[in-house]
Automatic annotation (TrEMBL):
InterPro entries: Prolamin-like (IPR008502). It holds the Pfam family Prolamin_like. Residues 1-18 form the signal peptide. This is Prolamin-like domain-containing protein. PANTHER family: EGG CELL-SECRETED PROTEIN 1.4, EGG CELL-SECRETED-LIKE PROTEIN (DUF1278). It comes from the Eukaryota. The lineage of its organism: Eukaryota, Viridiplantae, Streptophyta, Embryophyta, Tracheophyta. Keywords: Signal.
């Protein structure tokens, strides 16, 4: 074997080792913690996000129908009030496949319930 072949093999082995070590170190790192609390950056509690909608009778069904049909006229005022009161940080977790839906529904709810804030 020539010097070039040995250097090439040595270079390839060192690159593979560096790649695997980097991946292993990344998996071993833990997220920063506040003592006695959850890790920083923990996702929004989906139960808390959905609970206000489940408290209004038929609201989740109305929203589901509007997601699939694209029609917002069946969403009632009580459901609009509950949806408008949701924290905007809940939306990406509640509607991960359609990020445009929450602002559309909120803008429509602003027409149904005049005092509800529009999405900024």
């Amino acid at each position: 074997m020539g010097i070039k072949a040995i250097v090439s093999i040595l270079l390839m082995v060192s690159l593979c080792a560096a790649t695997f070590v980097t991946q292993g170190v990344a998996q071993m790192q833990t997220p920063p913690m506040i003592p006695g609390l959850f890790p920083i950056g923990l996702p929004i509690d989906l139960v808390k996000c959905w609970s206000s909608l489940f408290n209004v009778e038929g609201c989740v069904l109305e929203i589901s129908k509007s997601i699939f049909s694209g029609k917002f006229e069946n969403v009632e005022a009580a459901c609009c009030k509950a949806f408008s009161a949701l924290d905007a940080n809940c939306w990406p977790q509640m509607f991960p496949l359609n990020p445009f839906f929450p602002p559309l529904l909120k803008n429509n709810c602003a027409r149904i319930v005049p005092n509800s804030p529009t999405h900024n």
